[in-house]
Amino acid sequence: MSQEFPGCPLIFVAHPDDESLACGGLLQRLPASLVVFACNGAPGGFGLEREFGSLEKYSELRFEEASRVFRYVLNSSFKRLGRPDGSYFSDMHLFEGLPDAATSLSSLAESFSPDAIISHAYEGAHIDHDACSFLAMHVAAKLSLKRFEFPLYWIDRQGRVVRQQFRDVRCTTRKVEGESAVADVLEWRLNEAEIECKKKMLAEYRTQRGTVARFSPAEERMRVADSNIASFSIAMCRDYMYQNLRPRFYHTRHHRISAKALLKKFAEFEDWRNRGENWR
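RE: above sequence
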């Protein structure tokens, strides 16, 4: 691979399957890497507790799937963010525990000693993805690590889902050494063997088969991230899918939360960081 690629990154993603969708080929090429999952993979409000017995059982199933995926990439392994009490962050609620999440991610990064952090771009589609982007920015800055970001999906003005393309296009791509690269943008096509391996990885996520089927396995891209604190004071969408009701009230997939709620949590984190001796 190009010398511009990190050789031993920490890949920080929201949910099991995000790592394979965004970096399944990259994981095959890297000599070493650590994937860190932010959330428990079990969102409320979708009837999963009825189908699988409980959200806890569904979460366990998703991480069993992830364990099988990593049999295809033996140079990589995964860890999970955790709270001080040993619990995990619930899907769609990561933004509510940013100080604990940042502390956990920083500790994992210091133990692994990566040469870069790769995470989600700030896209305005999934609230956990955008929280991960924010956390990656802060931990990379704290540990003086280079930071890359990848696109997964976002919604355009016509309400269409745009997958695997950056929301903001900074520059034109050009070919370099069989890959595409320009300044801070890197794009590469997987060869046939890598595509087949990536398909097998994605197939292990049986609970997510409807989701992963919508993504192309052949291309991956990332770029050097230049978002900063000011970037995360601007909303990338009007609202996010969100559910915060008791299970007996789960009735719709269209429960939303304003993007202003996420920005408020970002601002509260900045206050915590500025006064917190443990973060410095």
